[in-house]
């Protein structure tokens, strides 16, 4: 069916409306980060003001931005790599050698995401404490990996399912063992899917705040914890908080922008076939 | 050299038995076709032979060695899939050389063997292409080439022509027949297309619901179907199968009353009142004034090389008659039909009753 010009117009307005609605808080945050604290809480809000970089200077000077950035990179990339190492074989087994428990297992994995994280805060905290993983990159990598693993396995499972079983069987006839099947057939064919899974996992880990704030103090605090330090007991400093947030999301926004083609392709894979 | 023996081979999924004890020997260099309606278990059996499905019971022997638990690649068989199952990210040459690469065959030998196979299949010009840039027929040839390169003991074909259009199917069928002549190796071929079965096979195995209905050469199946299932399955248009009751029998011949009322004589003794089925192929019916079966022509199909007429003889099913293309039969005309020699007779259990050849 072809859309009429009017329908196209309505769709365009709706699309832009939704996009602006989602973009607005980000834009407002960036805008606020260039205001003085006085201007930031001015009512009605100011759209025209003298921009200042003072907040950024203050945030970088006061907090350990570079340290937090490094932690964010190490933790999100580390959790993603570890997640893929565990998730790829798991999804492979589930997609190509399912048994009667596979469906239940996958639902059970997903169900762990339905529980609020705070529900397991105590046990996880104590586990980390006893094993000396509190406020360490390793501890956060492990927790982030575990929290993203269900999504990683589900996504990979869907991508692997797209690969015709005949091709895997042909490779078995040709003499490929499980490892060779993974390496020579599965990984090249599911490459785009694996890449978008990795990207999503990095973004989710990057933006994860609950565990970051609760399990780190100074050594392993990533950017999300870094932002939180600016809502201090002394009160809320909107402009500085905005500057810190902008600094925190900027890298992942740029990263997402650069890889958006890959991301969109991966997320709509199968839908368009 | 490759002989395959299937001894009471079984396959069950839970409590559901899909292969119900198959006994079959496939001789060296034989071209055997498994044929049957979809869901009859023919593909499952092929996959069991390939090693892609576990064997629930019985023995599978290749050259006298039991291979039930041998992994697929160690059985020395090559399979051609219906979907071609080429590796989309590899070139034609890499696709064909893949098994050799895994087996650690040196590159020079790999290339040489790929070249030879590519020549046979006229793929030499396409070796650097990816499967996506090939036509359906070319992809199927690559899939066959991938099998040839391995120099397997036997080839397994799983409905290899089903995804091709009609013209290409005929052409590829001929190529496969030629290939069998050239390679002189054992081939097992699964299809639901009885024309493919008739044209390619040394022997046809007709499957139905997980068991074998009949094994024989194409002409044996055509002339002497062992039962109603085979009679109805082999031959196109389908054999006319008409219910009948024995009116009288004199020890040498019997007179039947066909469904619809026409009388019919068969040269064998039968019990009076016995219910039988008469099978007459459409091409074995003559239109003659002496014919005892009379019917009114209801549909005429002009195929060019021949004409097919469907005549109502009073029963549920019309009588299908194959006539020469020049036939002047008219719609609505009442004709008299007589069998030309080859009528078949089946008892109530559907098994063929032997008739003296006449």
From TrEMBL, chain A:
<feature type="transmembrane region" description="Helical">
    <location>
        <begin position="73"/>
        <end position="93"/>
    </location>
</feature>
<dbReference type="GO" id="GO:0005524">
    <property type="term" value="F:ATP binding"/>
</dbReference>
<feature type="transmembrane region" description="Helical">
    <location>
        <begin position="209"/>
        <end position="230"/>
    </location>
</feature>
<dbReference type="InterPro" id="IPR035906">
    <property type="entry name" value="MetI-like_sf"/>
</dbReference>
<keyword id="KW-1133">Transmembrane helix</keyword>
<dbReference type="Pfam" id="PF00528">
    <property type="entry name" value="BPD_transp_1"/>
</dbReference>
<protein>
    <submittedName>
        <fullName>ABC transporter sugar uptake permease ATP-binding protein</fullName>
    </submittedName>
</protein>
<keyword id="KW-1003">Cell membrane</keyword>
<feature type="transmembrane region" description="Helical">
    <location>
        <begin position="105"/>
        <end position="127"/>
    </location>
</feature>
<feature type="transmembrane region" description="Helical">
    <location>
        <begin position="237"/>
        <end position="258"/>
    </location>
</feature>
<feature type="domain" description="ABC transmembrane type-1">
    <location>
        <begin position="69"/>
        <end position="259"/>
    </location>
</feature>
<feature type="transmembrane region" description="Helical">
    <location>
        <begin position="139"/>
        <end position="160"/>
    </location>
</feature>
<dbReference type="GO" id="GO:0055085">
    <property type="term" value="P:transmembrane transport"/>
</dbReference>
<keyword id="KW-0547">Nucleotide-binding</keyword>
<keyword id="KW-0812">Transmembrane</keyword>
<dbReference type="InterPro" id="IPR000515">
    <property type="entry name" value="MetI-like"/>
</dbReference>
<keyword id="KW-0472">Membrane</keyword>
<dbReference type="GO" id="GO:0005886">
    <property type="term" value="C:plasma membrane"/>
</dbReference>
<keyword id="KW-0813">Transport</keyword>
<feature type="transmembrane region" description="Helical">
    <location>
        <begin position="180"/>
        <end position="203"/>
    </location>
</feature>
<feature type="transmembrane region" description="Helical">
    <location>
        <begin position="9"/>
        <end position="31"/>
    </location>
</feature>
<comment type="similarity">
    <text>Belongs to the binding-protein-dependent transport system permease family.</text>
</comment>
Automatic annotation (TrEMBL), chain B:
<dbReference type="GO" id="GO:0016887">
    <property type="term" value="F:ATP hydrolysis activity"/>
</dbReference>
<feature type="domain" description="ABC transporter">
    <location>
        <begin position="4"/>
        <end position="234"/>
    </location>
</feature>
<dbReference type="Pfam" id="PF00005">
    <property type="entry name" value="ABC_tran"/>
</dbReference>
<dbReference type="GO" id="GO:1990060">
    <property type="term" value="C:maltose transport complex"/>
</dbReference>
<keyword id="KW-0067">ATP-binding</keyword>
<dbReference type="InterPro" id="IPR012340">
    <property type="entry name" value="NA-bd_OB-fold"/>
</dbReference>
<dbReference type="GO" id="GO:0015423">
    <property type="term" value="F:ABC-type maltose transporter activity"/>
</dbReference>
<dbReference type="GO" id="GO:0005524">
    <property type="term" value="F:ATP binding"/>
</dbReference>
<dbReference type="InterPro" id="IPR027417">
    <property type="entry name" value="P-loop_NTPase"/>
</dbReference>
<dbReference type="InterPro" id="IPR003593">
    <property type="entry name" value="AAA+_ATPase"/>
</dbReference>
<dbReference type="InterPro" id="IPR008995">
    <property type="entry name" value="Mo/tungstate-bd_C_term_dom"/>
</dbReference>
<dbReference type="InterPro" id="IPR047641">
    <property type="entry name" value="ABC_transpr_MalK/UgpC-like"/>
</dbReference>
<dbReference type="InterPro" id="IPR013611">
    <property type="entry name" value="Transp-assoc_OB_typ2"/>
</dbReference>
<dbReference type="Pfam" id="PF08402">
    <property type="entry name" value="TOBE_2"/>
</dbReference>
<dbReference type="GO" id="GO:0055052">
    <property type="term" value="C:ATP-binding cassette (ABC) transporter complex, substrate-binding subunit-containing"/>
</dbReference>
<dbReference type="InterPro" id="IPR015855">
    <property type="entry name" value="ABC_transpr_MalK-like"/>
</dbReference>
<dbReference type="InterPro" id="IPR017871">
    <property type="entry name" value="ABC_transporter-like_CS"/>
</dbReference>
<protein>
    <submittedName>
        <fullName>ABC transporter</fullName>
    </submittedName>
</protein>
<keyword id="KW-0547">Nucleotide-binding</keyword>
<comment type="similarity">
    <text>Belongs to the ABC transporter superfamily.</text>
</comment>
<dbReference type="InterPro" id="IPR003439">
    <property type="entry name" value="ABC_transporter-like_ATP-bd"/>
</dbReference>
<keyword id="KW-0813">Transport</keyword>
């Amino acid at each position: 069916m072809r859309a009429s010009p009017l329908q196209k117009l309505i769709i365009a307005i709706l699309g832009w409306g939704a996009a602006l609605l989602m973009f607005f808080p980000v834009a407002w945050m960036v805008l606020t980060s260039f205001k003085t604290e006085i201007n930031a809480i001015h009512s009605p809000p100011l759209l025209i003001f003298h921009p200042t970089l003072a907040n950024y200077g203050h945030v970088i000077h006061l907090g350990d931005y570079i340290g937090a950035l490094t932690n964010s990179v190490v933790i999100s990339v580390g959790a993603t790599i570890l997640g893929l190492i565990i998730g790829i074989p798991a999804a492979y087994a589930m997609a190509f050698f399912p048994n009667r428990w596979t469906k239940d297992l996958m639902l059970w994995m997903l169900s762990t995401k339905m529980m609020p994280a705070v529900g397991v805060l105590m046990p996880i905290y104590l586990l980390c404490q006893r094993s000396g993983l509190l406020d360490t990159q390793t501890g956060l990598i492990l927790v982030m990996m575990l929290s993203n693993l269900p999504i990683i396995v589900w996504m990979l499972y869907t991508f692997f399912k797209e690969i015709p079983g005949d091709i895997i069987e042909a490779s078995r006839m040709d003499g490929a063992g499980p490892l060779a099947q993974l390496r020579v057939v599965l990984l090249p064919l599911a490459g785009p899917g694996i890449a978008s899974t990795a990207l999503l996992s990095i973004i989710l880990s990057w933006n994860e705040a609950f565990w970051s704030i609760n399990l780190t103090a100074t050594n392993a605090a990533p950017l999300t914890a870094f932002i939180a330090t600016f809502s201090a007991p002394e009160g809320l400093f909107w402009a500085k908080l905005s500057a810190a947030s902008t600094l925190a999301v900027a890298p992942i926004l740029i990263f997402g922008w650069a890889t958006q083609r890959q991301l969109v392709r991966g997320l709509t894979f199968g839908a368009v076939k | 050299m490759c002989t395959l023996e299937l001894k009471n081979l079984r396959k069950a999924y839970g409590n559901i038995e899909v292969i119900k004890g198959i006994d079959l020997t496939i001789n060296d260099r034989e071209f055997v076709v498994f044929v049957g309606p979809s869901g009859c278990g023919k593909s499952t059996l092929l996959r069991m032979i390939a090693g892609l499905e576990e064997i629930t019971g019985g023995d599978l022997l290749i050259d006298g060695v039991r291979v039930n638990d041998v992994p697929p690649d160690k059985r020395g068989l090559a399979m051609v899939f219906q979907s071609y199952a080429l590796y989309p990210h590899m070139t034609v040459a890499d696709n064909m050389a893949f098994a050799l690469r895994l087996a650690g065959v040196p590159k020079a030998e790999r290339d040489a063997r790929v070249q030879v196979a590519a020549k046979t299949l006229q793929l030499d010009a396409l070796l650097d292409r990816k499967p996506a840039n090939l036509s359906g027929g070319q992809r199927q040839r690559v899939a066959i080439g991938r099998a040839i390169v391995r120099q397997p003991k036997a080839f397994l074909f799983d409905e290899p022509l089903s995804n091709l259009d009609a013209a290409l199917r005929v052409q590829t069928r001929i190529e496969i027949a030629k290939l069998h002549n050239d390679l002189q190796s054992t081939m097992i071929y699964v299809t639901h297309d009885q024309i493919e079965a008739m044209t390619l096979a040394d022997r046809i195995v007709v499957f139905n619901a997980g068991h074998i209905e009949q094994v024989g050469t194409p002409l044996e199946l055509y002339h002497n179907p062992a039962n109603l299932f085979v009679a109805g399955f082999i031959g196109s248009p389908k054999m006319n199968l008409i219910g009948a009751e024995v009116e009288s029998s004199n020890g040498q011949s019997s007179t039947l009353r066909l469904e619809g009322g026409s009388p019919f004589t068969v040269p064998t003794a039968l019990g009076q009142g016995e219910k039988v089925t008469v099978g007459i192929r459409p091409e074995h019916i003559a239109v003659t004034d002496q014919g005892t079966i009379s019917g009114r022509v209801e549909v005429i199909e002009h195929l060019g090389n021949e004409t097919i007429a469907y005549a109502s003889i009073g029963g549920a099913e019309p009588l299908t008659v194959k006539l020469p293309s020049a036939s002047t039969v008219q719609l609505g005309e009442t004709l008299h039909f007589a069998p030309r020699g080859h009528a078949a007779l089946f008892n109530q259990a559907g098994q063929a009753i032997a008739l003296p050849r006449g």
